[in-house]
Amino acid sequence: MLKKTSLFILIVPFLISCSATKSDVNPQIDFNDVITDQSLSDSEKIIELKIGLSRQEDKITNLENNIRYFENVFDSLEKKQINNINYLKTQIDSFKIEQSILIGPEFSNNITKLRNKVNILEDRAFFMDSLYFSLVTDMVIIENQINSITNSLDEIDSSDDFVHDGDINNIDFNFEYKKALELYMSGEFNSSLENFQNLINIQISNDLVDNCQFWIGQIYFMKNNYELAIDEFMKVLKYDNSNKIEDSMYKMGLCYMKTNKSEKAIEIFNELIINYPKSKYFNKSNEFLLNLK
Length: 293
Known about the structure:
81% of the residues lie in helices and 0% in strands. The chain has 293 residues and is an all-alpha fold.
């Protein structure tokens, strides 16, 4: 690309030739001839010199105007040249892309793009699977809430069947246990929690105290306080021959899942499957394990 100085060098001869043409109309004044001309007075010489100077200034002005004009022309051409180059580069890039589709050696690039798209689709599918798994988990929790209500109804019906030894305190314990279950079923979790905790503190009946402990964990589970629920369900496992061990282990697994502790959930579900193969939670635990691993 030509520099402006180079363009100036090319333009100056043209301008000079233009000025020479104009000099035919307005002939140049030789300043030396004017000064040495004895036929002219000093005032006439000054006039002639001023005329000559004015003509020179006009020529300089014309030259400057022409230079500016050609500089503008040059800038315009330069911009057009840049635009043309950019357009050509764009066309070349477009051509390369088209060739990459058609030409064999470049076909691998398209395979890579397709693989990336497949990976994106797989990620979306995984997300949908995770969403489905989450929905299944929530459905299982709802199902267990229904089971808990059913169990509580059964326990209320059977609480009067416990053998009493005539001790008035034992009768009061069963009555308070039934009352605590009724509070749980009506959704009065705080009152139910307080009653169950009081029964555990009394610890009169070993037949129901582990059940009280389970329902305390269940109340925290219903209140979405999964950390505390795990602690309370863990206490149920300490009771020998408790009828709530399987329920507590299964609920602990759900709590671990809700708190994103997958390894803990896998551990407790495995333990439930191994130790209680005939449990009603056996199939559900296996299903969760398949999705967690």
